[in-house]
Amino acid sequence: MSDLSAARHAMVESQLRARGITDPRVLDAMLRVPREEFVPEGYRRYAYDDGPLPIGNGQTISQPYVVAVMLEALQLSGTEKVLEIGTGSGYVTALLGELAAEVFSIERYADLAENAWHVLAHLGYSNVRVITGDGTLGLPAAAPFDAILVSAAAYGVPRALLEQLAEGGRMMIPVGTHDAQQLQLIRMVGGQPVVSVREAVRFVPLIQDVSA
Fold first, then answer.
1. Is the pTM value of this prediction over 0.90?
2. Of 21, 122, 150, 203, whose CB is crowded by the most CB atoms within 10 A?
3. Tens digit of each residue's pLDDT (9 = 90 or more) over 31-82
4. Is residue 17 part of a domain?
């Protein structure tokens, strides 16, 4: 076992399982996906540290534990069509590719989207699609979605995303200001969003493309 592979196993045991992540599909996916492939070369030795890492354009790859919390809350069975807002490095996109049938991921920075796509293609993820665009608009052409995961913090939940969430669908999104955010789990029940507030987090902001 390589040093990084050993670090990946240690991350799952000490950062995830020990903190209460129990979904076996999430744990298995995080054992399979090589996080080091999604971070800049100079940060690979830190790939399994308990925290976020910079990936360029002022963006980060999220802390593994926070990623696991969000994925576990979505309760994916493997049959779902999922929308991800904020591809970033592509790491969470790969995990969603392990956990769902079809994944559409939107990234506002073209260079990040291109880099993520190259890594995902190299690793063989044929069920994911990366699109450059404004994530606050979602992807109406592919809606509705069984699950939506937002990897950037919004002051409020974008209406377009709620409208694209299928009946019975789940959305995980960090909501709040730059300094105070909490994860929200939103379930669409009878055409109405039902919100439960989860962990406090710190994400980069969700930015609308105002040039369009």
1. yes
2. 150
3. 999 999 999 999 999 999 999 999 998 899 999 999 999 999 999 999 999 9
4. no
Q: HSE (CB half, 13 Å, CA atoms) of 157? A: 22
Contacts of 70 (CB under 8 A, 6+ apart): 92, 149, 172, 183
CATH of the domain at 70: 3.40.50.150
The answer to whether residue 209 sits within a structural domain is no
**Can you give the residue range of the structural domain that contains 153?**
51-201
* Residue 2 designated active-site: no
pLDDT tens-digit readout, 109-138: 999 999 999 999 999 999 999 999 999 999
The length of the chain is 212
Q: Helix 24-32 to helix 3-11 angle, to the nearest 10 degrees?
A: 160
Distance CA 34, CA 154 (A): 28
Single-letter code of the amino acid located at 57? N
Residue 151 lies in a domain: yes
* Catalytic option among 14, 62, 77, 151: 62
Q: How many CB atoms lie within 10 A of CB 203?
A: 23
| Total tally of structural domains belonging to the chain | 1
pLDDT tens-digit map of 77-107: 999 999 999 999 999 999 999 999 999 999 9
